[in-house]
Amino acid sequence: TMPKEPAVLRQNILDTTAAILACGIDPNKCFLFRQSLVPEHTELAWILGCLTNVPRLLRLPQWKMKRASQNSEGTVGLLTYPVLQAADILLYKSTRVPVGEDQVLHLELAQDIAQHFNKKYGEFFPVPKAILSEL
């Protein structure tokens, strides 16, 4: 949600890919891709954003904390980031999502968005459940 220099962003992508591979993820057994190259993520985020009310997003604690750290000038990207996260989850029709405690409310938002979408347009998205870990 913060602007980055293009060279730094490219290096971050390479570093993250290297870290994922170093953790033992086998690209022969899973799909490894750059999310930013899949336009359906942002397209679905736009559609879901049109179904999500602003007061709900303003109540999320992460918005309040980050906005405070940005001198009360939080950006639209920061405000709508949880909707993009919901799109990331729902696009693949995920049923289980590993999350930390700090992301439970964002997953609850994804659940609410899925239920709202399904009620309005018919059963399409499974409502994802959290997989919580102590780690």
TrEMBL record:
GO terms for cellular component: mitochondrial matrix. It is an enzyme of class 6 (ligase). One of its GO terms (biological process) is mitochondrial tryptophanyl-tRNA aminoacylation. It holds the Pfam family tRNA-synt_1b. GO terms for molecular function: ATP binding; tryptophan-tRNA ligase activity. Its EC number is 6.1.1.2. The keyword Nucleotide-binding applies. Keywords: Aminoacyl-tRNA synthetase, ATP-binding, Ligase, Nucleotide-binding, Protein biosynthesis. InterPro entries: aa-tRNA-synth_Ic (IPR002305), Rossmann-like_a/b/a_fold (IPR014729), Trp-tRNA-ligase (IPR002306), Trp-tRNA_synthetase (IPR050203). PANTHER family: TRYPTOPHAN--TRNA LIGASE, MITOCHONDRIAL. Belongs to the class-I aminoacyl-tRNA synthetase family. This is tryptophan--tRNA ligase. It comes from Pycnonotus jocosus (Red-whiskered bulbul). The gene is Wars2.
